[in-house]
Amino acid sequence: QVQVVESGGGLVQPGGSLRLSCEASGSISGVGIVGWYRQSPGIPRDLVARITEAGETTYADSVRGRFAISRGSADNTVYLQMSDLKPEDTATYYCAANLRVVKSWGNYWGQGTQVTVSS
With a cut of 70, which residues of the chain have pLDDT below it? Predict the structure, then answer.
């Protein structure tokens, strides 16, 4: 069974930092593009950052220069370093990974981790 699990969320003051982790586990034979998304109540889920197998990154305009996505030494882990956090960054953050399971590629989502930025 394949799982994608996010961790690292929490409560932080404006200007603070958090690092989110996304780990894929199970019978995985390949990891493709991995993206972080976020969603607040009443607002559609939006892409925050994405990283390709080659390490190419894409960021939403609202987080460019403050957030950094990276792959861990093990291909199955991706991080989102968030700095200079603002109240508007408050959301549930989801990881979506394109994974090769047996011989097929598919998109797998985690359950999300809550990030709250408040004084």
Answer: none
